[in-house]
Amino acid sequence: MRPIILCIIFVVSLSAGLSAEDSSHVITINYPPDRTIMEFDILGVSLNVPAGSADLIKVFANDRESMRTVPDSRTECFSVLLTTGINRINIKAYKGTTEVENISISVFRRSGFESAYKNPPPGFQKDYFHTTNRDQCSGCHVLKPADTDRKPVSVAAFPVEKLKYGNVPSSSTCYSCHKRLNAYPFIHGPSAVWSCLSCHDPAAAPMYAVRKPDTKVCFGCHIEQKEEWERRKYFHGPYTTGSCSICHSPHASENPSNLLKPIWDLCINCHTDKGSGRHIVAAVGGTYFHPTRGKRDPLKQDRELSCVSCHDPHASDSPRLWRLNVGSGFELCRKCHTD
What domains are there in the chain, each with its CATH number? Predict the structure, then answer.
């Protein structure tokens, strides 16, 4: 009987130790859970902060301070910018000058076009926020979209809708949590007017998912582009698979055309052999080569020379996706090299 008694005593002691450890936390993370997979670069975080437990909260992403806040309610919500791959989110709480809490979680930011970050490490999984009842959030936030979250998405209608709805963000139930999605200079039309239900489907599983492939949604507005590209003979890989979001952000971006990265950086993620810069022509010994960036585009002086100066990123009548309606590489060269 002695081994059994000792085992029971050990289990009881271990349980008591775990309870004491759990209760020792000053603040806790409501969302996200540890080892979550995210598809975009902005992570929403929610903390439970008991009244009087902390005077200051500092948030670190990958060992760099991301933000700090003075808690004024039991629940604190904020956004953290992620990089592709594993992100370590560290949250520290202070009472006066004393650190009273230090907790960390890991979040994996997936990428559809960077091969190193397409698949998460073992142990990471998606946690769909809107698929479960979030009682800790519903006290302050409306978690179901309203009619104002589905506005006409015709480009010509945007100014009219802004007048009709007045302050567009205030008419959106999504804005209070997701406002940082649009904190960039180039904003996608539906996102600009907070017409979230133009793309997100409340009846989808998981809830509010966007129909796949992306073109089922995107071509609902981009009709002229669809008709133009479908007349071509050859198509770029992402276009063929209907995966617009491989290259474009559906919300907002720092880059024109809502690209996820500057054009050259975006292209070489897949076309890695072009990253050396030795492209098109190279003299014996590789001394000379045609530039693919760092120069003005001869045909568009207001932009930098890049891959799209010569190639169409969607569709073309050339097997090499040449643009400018040329029949040969020599004709393409002559568009700039006229002498």
Answer: 28-128 (2.60.40.10), 147-222 (no CATH), 261-334 (no CATH)
